[in-house]
Amino acid sequence: MKTKRNPNCIFCQIIEGKIPCYKIYEDETTLAFLDISKDVEGHTLVIPKKHQASMQDATNCTLHNVFKTVNKICKHYYAKGYTGMRIQINSGETVGQSVHHLHVHILPTKATQPLKEPATKPLQINLEELANLLRLP
Length: 137
Ligand code: AMP
Ligand code: ZN
Fold this sequence. Notes:
By secondary structure, the protein is an alpha+beta fold. It has helices spanning about 10-15, 60-80, 125-135; strands at about 25, 30-35, 45-50, 85-90, 105-110. It has one domain (about 10-135): HIT-like (HIT family, subunit A). It is about 25% helix and about 20% strand. The site of zinc ion has 6 residues, from helix 1.
């Protein structure tokens, strides 16, 4: 598949394996991995493998592929015991987009783990162990 990457983009570097990530799922067009911030247990990012900066740059095909993966991961996380997901996209600097490669945040919740707003200090999470637990087969 022909892919367009931006060598200065941290998420493109993750796709190319130049920067490690805690992978949850990968297919031909998308990659999902744990967010490094440890603000919410299971916080996952889904990205297209083609570099598209944000929503206004995204093609229908990319959105289809990305949301197909979001859907797959949500189903899997429900099966793993989470009972709610916030699905969020920050598109543009004035809304706080810090990485300019389109990404969908999945923020899983359960009764014992409600979303705290605003997020407090980082949680004590071992991302490697969590990724091993949540990774799709
Ligand atoms: P946004 O503010 O919507 O652009 O979100 C960017 C997200 O990327 C933040 O939640 C960061 O914690 C996350 N992030 C940045 N670098 C990495 C990385 N190397 N691995 C995993 N997540 C990252
Ligand atoms: Zn990129």
